[in-house]
Write the structure tokens for this entry.
Amino acid sequence: MKRDIENDLFNWKERIDRLPLLLRGARQVGKSYIVEEFGKKAFKNLVVVNFEFRPELKQCFTTLDPIEIINKLQLLTGQTIEAGKTLLFLDEIQECPNAIMALRYFKEKYNKLAVIGAGSLMEFALNNSNFRMPVGRVQFIYLEPLSWLEFLTASGNEQLRHYLGQISLNSVIDGAVHKKLLDLLRIYLIVGGMPAVVKEYLESKNFLNCQRIQNSLLQTYRSDFGKYAKSSEHKYLQKVLDEAPRLVGDRIKYSNIDPDSKSRDIKQALNLLKLAGIIYPVYATAASGLPLEAQINEMKFKLNFLDVGLMQNACGLQTKLTLTNDFIQINAGAVTEQFIGQELRAQTDSYLERGLFFWARDKKNSSAEVDYVVALDSLILPVEVKAGKTGTLKSLKLFIKEKKPPFGIRFSQEKLSLCDKVLTLPLYMTGQMRRLAQEAS
């Protein structure tokens, strides 16, 4: 499957000031696949060093000298590693922290060799207090599950993707095309963006088979607990992993996850699953200026799950998504709120760390909450996921009145419109949000 991040990788290859890359992302989002495909297309040869599969190769990194490292790797792998012609891929690099530290010296002493590292649980190595990160000598790049637009490409609907990219604020979307896109979106909400599940759907069109693979992926995440947590912490991780998909869209209270556990234990479990890339906190921000991160309240947060397909699977919502036309209402809108959050992550520059934010005002008789807040150049815009008519958007209107943005954004199943300071976008136009918002401003 073609992934949009390939374009970033090809641009990286051509840069004169190229830094070694560390590809970050949760397990099973396709990191190894994308790097190996890129290596085969862009280089004369690809050398894969998988530290999990071949742990003896860690011995090559007892030194940090890149020439010594390459000489040892060539002898042990029997492959030629040549600057300008080879991509050296260090897979499961978290198993060898010395390899991460050695990347600094590849930049300083052997920068003509292209090097990419990746690993599903790399975040735990990077956050270890004993680890010295080669700051300024390594570049991070992030991979998410397949986005909605990537799903369109993978499913043979590239023309529809191109069509969406050409729509302007004055465009009129044909009713048949609108229905087709909503039908495809329903499939995406069931299948999600995990590559193995998408592959199964494209081959069999069998939702039950997809569900079984989703179950297997969730079990894989449970099996990983032993790699990054003490056995005494496993029960809290299990509890949070079980409850998190059901809590998407809700303010998180530790007692709602498990009233019988101590808050610090649940908080620690949440943090570990965040490092594993399985959950993403959505923090409340005052939204009074940029950057949004500078004004967050870490005590007020919601959750976004790794993938909408996994989320609906864990909540048992597949049948409802299959049968109902009004899927924006399913689970009180949690599925579509998950989808929008996941799309906002996917639309973030691949080189930037993901951050999701919402806005809330907790005042007696005047409370309000906006699902998401996004920064667009110098603008701060509220984003709501709503089925109701524009006039019912109380919180969105309150945000616009208080913060004075030129407009707010509403996602729904309605067609494209700009009316009364509300830009309404159909759910299938998430990938066009930033472009059309710029046009509207």
User: Anything to note?
Assistant: The CA atoms of residues 123 and 129 lie 12 Å apart. The two ends are 35 Å apart (CA to CA).
